[in-house]
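Practice record 12: protein with tryptophan.
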Amino acid sequence: MKGIIFSGMRPTGKLHLGNYFGALSNWIRLQDEYKCYYGVVDWHALTTGYDCTEMMKENTIEMVIDWLSAGIDPNKSTLLIQSYIPELAELHLLLSMITPLSWLERNPVVKEQVRDLDLKENMGYGLLGYPVLMAADILIYKTNTVPVGEDQAPHIELAREIGRRFNHLYQDVFTIPEIKLSPTPKILGTDGRKMSKSLNNYISLSDQPEVIRTKIMSMITDPEKIKLSDPGHPEICTVFDYHKKFNISEVSDIERRCSNAQLGCVACKERLSEILIEFFQGFRERREGYEKNKDMVWDILKSGSQEAREVAKITLHEVKKAMKIDYAR
Ligand code: TRP
């Protein structure tokens, strides 16, 4: 039997290269090896974004169009929207009963969010329960593998503890999932910092060729290489980093010519622009197709959610039976 995967993304709209290399490219790769459930986790988005919901719908469809255009195949994987699966809310509630508050309060990820978003007194009950909801997402499909980035590891550890605690208190219902850390190192933003929407240093998968070119041409390179005849230090250059990711066949040549002062930064960036534009050509074409057909994309999400719900219902029933609260069934 194939292993079962669940992973989720908050609906943030169009995805950038950081999202692609950090998560999406792995999701695509895993589709043949596992039975995969991939979720738009809109309730998780509400834990911090409850006051700005007007973009949720748009952000959901744009993100899922990126998934599909990049190679997530709805015939292989089950694509779902978290809030279309009410059984998750019920499981979340039941799990919240057995989760010690101290486990949630010591969670470093939540602590960081409270600090970064300056939430303090405004921290919602829902945000504290973020990992319990994640545990519900994962456990309800009897997931045994969860591919995520390093930043999510403490949450997955909690999901494992919650699952174990349930199995110990009642009966062995849940599979205890293994974490599968994303293997690809992060791609930096165009300014050399971590790529993120808020830093405005990102390249979207859907950027048009001229936008890609403008963003690449504005990238900062080795500050000691001013003219072509200055020898460069590719190891500290973000543009070179991109060549390593997208232009494997030319990378050793570029490294040599940059260090030997035979290749200037403008030509080097121009070449990178060409490569990137080419790399996402097929993606942009597929994306145009889905954009014209958003109803079809919503249908994919509806039927995926329906399929996931069937599994969720069975697990929830087992949960209630184990807890002896399935009275009249
Ligand atoms: N918290 C994850 C993130 O922000 C998204 C997520 C929600 C998730 N539920 C999940 C990831 C379950 C893996 C498994 O990236």
